[in-house]
Design a protein that fits this description.
- The complex is a heterodimer.
- In chain A, strands 1, 6, 7, 8, 9 and 10 form a six-stranded antiparallel β-sheet that branches. In chain A, strands 11-2-3-12-13 form a five-stranded antiparallel β-sheet, with helices on one face. Chain A has a two-stranded antiparallel ribbon with strand order 4-5.
- Chain A is α+β, with helices and mostly antiparallel strands.
- Chain A contains five helices and 13 strands.
- The relative contact order of chain B is 0.07.
- Chain B is about 50% helix and about 0% strand.
- In chain B, helix 5 packs antiparallel against helix 6.
- Chain B has a domain at about 40-130.
- Chain B is mostly helical.
- Classes of the chains: A alpha+beta, B mainly alpha.
- The interface between A and B is medium-sized, with 14 and 15 residues.
- Chain B: This is Proteasome maturation protein.
- Chain B: One of its GO terms (cellular component) is nucleus.
- Chain B: Pfam families: UMP1.
């Protein structure tokens, strides 16, 4: 890699999630929001991609950066966290996830392109953490990340207050992501929202549909009705089957 | 980028038979590939387990005294010897349990599965070598 400056390398086009994700700490939980566009340079690769990943029943993670990196890293994190919480006999906490993630990302020195925002509710309270690809961690009350983060942060900075109510927090996150979608080419399509509280998780996908949604899919049908292709001849051969063995097993309904 | 100690010096002993580079199995020769790492993380990952162990043993020695790392290393050496026949892949379960890596999943568990390896040693020759008959 020392000769990269001399030899011109062909640009690798991987699918990027240059997205927009943000979340907000509210009164009794955490609200995460994300758009649903994945791009590969100038082309939209996925119009309905899921950027909010499951880590634990009480912890969800938004991922920006390279699509495959965020997905695999969050899956590994989820598996390791489950094994760890089973071993130690404790419910998973957000700090555990953050530490596992930090170790993993630092080991690979930023080569794994995963910007992750972890949010969750555990026995110690509501937490939001931001983890950079190199492994640095920041604990924040609200944050936006991705290519559209500046526009979203503007809305968040203006509207955030400590201890927001649920509906106001959802509206704030929605407005922030909407601002990012309007101002940035790398974000777009629908908005997903995930609300985590002590009672449970509400993953609303999509929370808001895009105004430029393609309605042709509902009208276009790819199935042809029977009779489109004319049938010339028909021959029916019944298969002779004989019962060789019959066993009865009782279902255990105890 | 300076030359590191852990990269073998090229040109003196190519990997093929009779001292000639085996193009079919190990590809074309390239001085750059043998002197410089081909990825920023190549050296760090090649020696990762070694460096972790060194760090841990050194800390353990400072806290508990020389006996602690010595005992642990003896156990590691014993566990490493539990293998199957020379050409079969081993799960290294005892070694994993000692290290604590049976409780975590990493890329080494997903990628480079030894059961899917394309290369395999010749069984007869490897067993003969091991028994000292060769």
């Amino acid at each position: 890699y020392a000769l990269e400056n001399i030899i011109h390398l062909k640009q690798i086009r991987h699918i990027n999630i240059m997205l927009l994700i943000s979340f907000v700490l509210m009164q009794d939980g955490v609200v995460l929001g994300a758009d649903t566009r994945a791009t590969s340079s100038e082309v939209v690769a996925d119009k309905m991609c899921a950027k909010i990943h499951y880590i634990a029943p009480n912890i969800y993670c938004c991922g920006a950066g390279t699509a495959a990196d965020t997905k695999k890293t969050t899956e590994l994190l989820s598996s390791n966290l489950t094994i760890f919480s089973m071993n130690s006999g404790r419910n998973p906490r957000v700090v555990m996830a953050v530490n596992i993630l930090q170790d993993m990302l630092y080991r690979y020195r930023g080569q794994i392109g995963a910007n992750l925002l972890l949010g969750g509710v555990d026995c110690t309270g509501n937490h939001l953490y931001e983890v950079d690809p190199y492994g640095s961690v920041d604990k924040v009350p609200y944050i936006a990340m991705g290519s559209g983060d500046l526009a979203a942060l503007g809305i968040l900075e203006d509207g955030f207050k400590p201890d927001l109510e649920l509906e106001k927090a959802k509206e704030l996150v929605r407005a922030a992501i909407h601002a990012g979608i309007m101002s940035d080419l790398g974000s777009g399509n629908n908005i997903d929202i995930c609300v985590i509280t002590r009672r449970g998780v509400d993953y609303i996908r999509p929370y808001q549909d895009s105004e430029y949604k393609d309605n042709r899919y509902k009208k276009m049908k790819y199935k042809y009705r029977p009779g489109t292709t004319p049938v010339l001849t028909e021959k029916v051969v019944p298969l002779k089957l004989e019962v060789v063995q019959e066993t009865v097993q009782q279902m255990d309904t105890a | 980028m300076s030359l590191k100690d852990s990269i073998p010096v090229a040109g003196l002993c190519p990997q093929g038979q009779y001292g000639v580079q085996d193009s079919l199995r190990s590809g074309f020769t390239s001085a750059k590939n043998e002197l410089l790492p081909s990825h920023p993380l190549e050296l760090s990952e090649k020696n990762f387990q070694l460096n972790q162990d060194k760090m841990n043993f050194s800390t353990l020695r400072n806290i508990q005294g020389l006996h602690a790392p010595l005992k642990l290393q003896m156990e590691y050496r014993a566990a490493r010897q539990i293998q199957r026949l020379p050409f079969l892949p081993s799960s290294n379960l005892a070694l994993d349990t000692l290290r604590g890596s049976d409780e975590s999943i990493g890329f080494e568990d997903i990628l480079n599965d030894p059961a899917q390896s394309e290369m395999m040693g010749e069984p007869h020759m490897m067993v003969e070598y091991k028994l000292g008959l060769l």
